[in-house]
Amino acid sequence: MHNEAFKRPQNFGKVIRRAKKGLLEENAEPGSPNSITVHVEQYYAVNYLCQFYIGRALEHVFGCMIKFKFLHRSVVAGINTFNWPRRDDIDTCHTNNVFNGPIQLVGTGLFTVVELENIKKAFALQTKSHCKC
To answer: What is the CA radius of gyration of the chain?
Structure first.
């Protein structure tokens, strides 16, 4: 995720400050139809700058912000796999960006995600109206 090609939106700091103050969107409230309860040490699909990543929830930081450690995607022998990058890819995201999970990973080292096609479909539906990528 930490790549020169991806830059945070200009209002990212403002969003973080609003989250700290508890000024969050209505759909961030627990129990709302689109909310997912995030549990530490479980894996989730996260929308990050109009791409999705699979990450392990490390801790609840404040309000609706969660620190994730992200896997990176690669294709090995035509199969989508996920692995831990050499340098940890850790970032804090709003729970509104979590759109699927918990997710079960299969394997060790190179992981596969059984429900990957469903995650791709859910991501496509979510980003259709939100991302102008």
So the answer is: 15
